[in-house]
């Protein structure tokens, strides 16, 4: 058990200790007994923390949970869905603001493969587990500047971030690198 104040103190401590840290959390809209005031407190928390990633769901009973056996699902479905939509909207607004801090920065990205939306782009994840999209082009390899390479799944690349949304960073690739060699650039 902890208070909102203690939680926010922890958030501030984490951000001071690890500049640029990405924060994520799970949120359930319409949990048993949730009041409108409870919901508004969750909205307020989303605005204050500015999570980079979030997993948001409407509550639904699951037979193998304690809540199923001990609590009454007393929030109407239409209220759950309205609250969920409000949480998603606020989350996206705030995550976009939080992710804007990455624009102009160079980030180490682990290549996963081609983007789902474009065969001419690659997709990977940065160390905050945020999705990063960048063009699939030939690039320099830091271990052999004479050779031009294309990134493959499992490679590390340096990407300069040029734009963002609530869930994705976009940028242009600078070079293929290694974990060891990347520290000189990031």
UniProtKB/TrEMBL annotation:
Keywords: 4Fe-4S, Iron, Iron-sulfur, Metal-binding, S-adenosyl-L-methionine. Residues 1-97 form the Radical SAM core domain. Transmembrane segments: none annotated. One of its GO terms (cellular component) is cytosol. Residues 100-175 form the TRAM domain. Gene3D superfamilies: tm_1862 like domain. GO terms for molecular function: 4 iron, 4 sulfur cluster binding; metal ion binding; tRNA-2-methylthio-N(6)-dimethylallyladenosine(37) synthase activity. PROSITE patterns: RADICAL_SAM (PS51918), TRAM (PS50926). Pfam families: TRAM (PF01938). Coiled coil: none annotated. PANTHER family: CDK5 REGULATORY SUBUNIT-ASSOCIATED PROTEIN 1, MITOCHONDRIAL TRNA METHYLTHIOTRANSFERASE CDK5RAP1. This is CDK5 regulatory subunit-associated protein 1.
């Amino acid at each position: 058990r902890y208070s909102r104040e203690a939680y926010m103190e922890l958030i501030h401590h984490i951000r001071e200790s690890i500049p640029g840290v990405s924060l994520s959390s799970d949120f359930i809209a319409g949990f048993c007994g949730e009041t409108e005031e409870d919901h508004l407190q969750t909205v307020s928390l989303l605005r204050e923390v500015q999570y980079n990633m979030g997993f948001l769901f409407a509550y639904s009973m699951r037979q193998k949970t304690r809540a199923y056996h001990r609590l009454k699902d007393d929030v109407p479905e239409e209220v759950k869905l309205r609250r969920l939509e409000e949480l998603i909207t606020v989350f996206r607004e705030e995550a976009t603001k939080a992710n804007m801090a990455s624009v102009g920065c160079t980030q180490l990205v682990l290549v996963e493969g081609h983007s789902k939306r474009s065969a001419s782009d690659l997709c990977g994840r940065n160390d905050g587990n945020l999705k990063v999209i960048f063009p699939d082009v030939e690039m320099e390899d830091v271990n052999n500047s004479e050779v031009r390479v294309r990134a493959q799944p499992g490679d590390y690349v340096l990407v300069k971030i040029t734009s963002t949304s609530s869930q994705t960073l976009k940028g242009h690739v600078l070079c293929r690198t290694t974990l060891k060699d990347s520290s000189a650039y990031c």
